[in-house]
Amino acid sequence: MPSATDLHPGETFDVAIVGDITEEVVSYGFHMTYDTSLLALDGLTVAPQFTSAYSPRPDGLVATAYPTTAVGEDVLLGTAHFTARAVGTSNIGIEITPDDPLEGFAQRECGFAEMNVTPTVVTITWSPFRNRQRSSCSWVEWR
């Protein structure tokens, strides 16, 4: 899993959220996990092949695959947009709240897909000479 190690406080960066989906999924919902003392979540964007749905959580992403389903390897689910706040190292991952009806990966036939998350890691270092810029960094996977 690649990680970003050349980030500095004040810089913005994106994390692509991808999944290997072995059975057809009609919708998904999850929330981001990260160290809030080091990172600020600026927003979440649903991947173009999905339709965004309402999430009451500011760190949540909910979408449907209607009128089709999602299946395959390295399926882009969305993108998380962050700003580095302070020096340190943070995991970035996704999580599902078990009793939340908006979270999970709903399968076409019935039930929910199991999820194994491989978080990405970002390291933020201090540099007095670094210009602020948007970086595109690694991804969060679930398999």
Through-space gap between termini: 13 Å
Helix fraction bin: under 10%
Summed over residues and divided by their number, the pLDDT gives a mean of 86
Q: Report the sheet with the most strands, covering strand number, pairing sense and barrel closure.
A: 11 strands, mixed
Number of helices in the DSSP assignment: 0
What report would you give on this structure?
With 143 residues, this protein is an all-beta fold. The chain has a single domain (4-142), classed as Immunoglobulin-like. 0% of the residues lie in helices and 59% in strands. The protein contains no helices and 11 strands. Strands 1, 2, 3, 4, 5, 6, 7, 8, 9, 10 and 11 form an 11-stranded mixed sheet that branches. β4 and β5 form a beta hairpin. It is elongated and about 55 Å long.
For the structure shown, list the relevant keywords.
mainly beta, disordered C terminus, 11-stranded mixed beta sheet, 143 residues
